[in-house]
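anyone else get weird line breaks when pasting these?? whatever heres mine. first is seq + tokens for prot A
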Amino acid sequence: MQVKIFADGADKQSILDLARNPWISGFTTNPTLMRKAGITDYESFGRDLTRAISDRPFSFEVLSDDFDEMEQQALRIASWGENVYVKIPITNTRGESAAPLVYRLAQRGVKINVTAVMTLEQVDGVIKSLRYGPPSCISIFAGRVADAGCDPLPILCGALARMRSYPQIELIWASPRELFNIVQADAIGCHIITVTHDLLKKLPLIGRDLNEYSLDTVKMFFEDARAAGFTLNTESLVH
């Protein structure tokens, strides 16, 4: 497959372990994942990781809701390493577009990952801001689009068509819900897909023989029923 797999998580030891996996091309995280992982010092967490793994990209998100403060935070985060991309949300919490901020940062040479994107209108806005800047990414939250009952594929394909003239901009399929999303992302030519650490454990399943997989599933159900001690009395059915 050509699609690059980025591990999405915030457990430091898991990230370091995954860095030894040649399938993993980069790393992303976000404040929600870091909170769940119990991270208390954001900057130390980010700096430690970028020092330990300097050969692949990392994406770290700004924390402010004010665009001026976001800009200062973005510059600080970018200073953590040459492999750092700064995650800028597509809007602030008031729904105001971050496109002007993205433009200013791109003009200053900051590598940006525009995050939480879900519509082609949003894609159009940020491409204008990124098209003459350094390497950057646009993260379309395909899983959340699907959660809303919408097919994310037309949005992802539409984004790829719009980005074709700007090879320094890569599309990220974000928030996948199942392993098959990796196959789908590869099929449409998506550049990157973020995959949670739990979902990454299933990677060896790709390409399994389905007859063999079916048999293993039957064996699992049988063994679990036996281990649980389940029984059914069938004597009353005999006449």
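and prot B, same format (seq, then tokens)
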Amino acid sequence: MLGSGSSIQLMRLFGIRIGASPSWFVVLFIVIYLLSDRFQGTGGSNEASYLVAVIAAVLFFGSIVLHELGHALTARRLGIGVNGIDLWFFGGIMKMDHETDSPSKEFKVAAAGPAVTAVIFGICIGVLAAMGVTPRQALKSQQPVEALLGFVALMNGLVFVFNMVPAFPLDGGRIARAAVWALTGDRNKATRAAGRVGQGFAYLMIGFGVFIAVRDRAALLDGVYFAVLGWLLGQAARSAVVATEFTERLDGVTVADIMDAEAVTMPATTTTSQAQNEYFLRYRYDWFPVVDEHGRFLGMVREPSIDSEIAAGRPALAVGEIVEAADADGWRVPSDRALESLLGDERLRTRGALMAVDGDGVLRGVVTIDQVRRALSSALPQRLA
């Protein structure tokens, strides 16, 4: 799903930050309030009913987090960095540091979330069956466990069906995009197709929301919710379609075409004293890429690390010993990667630059966010002419 803005960290799971936007806390209280009425009488007392409502809300949003974790863990397994998961007014969003670069990766990442949701649904139904209770009976049950299982099964079933609609930017739309991409070999064409379906679905949602709001005043809140969600989906779908028209102007342009191929690098054998005098004091950069004797990128070295080692009496220490090797993958980008894929690369936005490497890991140049902006600026007049 979509979403944006800053968030408050709730926890970390598998090393992935789980956050929530301020709007989510409003939704949480609203959901608990509505569920307290729905579970009235469950457990035999008002206190028990309220507790069941709180647990139901936690389980529901927990299901959303697991759904997004499915996306995140799959993306990470495919080599795509994950910047976190955020809960917000209309659900959850998993943030990758760059878009997928193949139909198979797009399909795997998109399908992982609904797959987790389907598993949760199946587990709930299976446990109810083992208890000799049908889903319909569970939804009307006054027994807390049965009522909670029925509720979680219902909500995950609805989430699965909704997300599998082949309308971008829903998961089903991304799966559809992966299919069209695989068939045509054209990511832009696939995005346009899924995006247009997404726009059509958004209009239907807005119409449905207006219809139920006008027909029944008691359903006014539901109608507004559907209409606003439809509008947001429509905006996201439209943006995706418009973006394809622009990225086609960049077709064939790669990182190697815009990178600085003469970037200053620091050999791993450079001493900390040399690094300070011949690099940091001379160029006044915040960091330098470190390479081995074959030119392979090893990681970054920063001035505070150099100053710290010199202050500790180690001016002859080789920078290869203190290079930030653990974060090297976060700086690498293939030199033959399409420029358009950098437009949504979170790493470039936060770091300001990436190291362009070839298939052997040899550093071929540095691409900066300013270089990307200049490339985009040069493409704009051609499109608007």
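btw re prot B: The mean pLDDT is 88. The CA atoms of residues 135 and 150 lie 6 Å apart.
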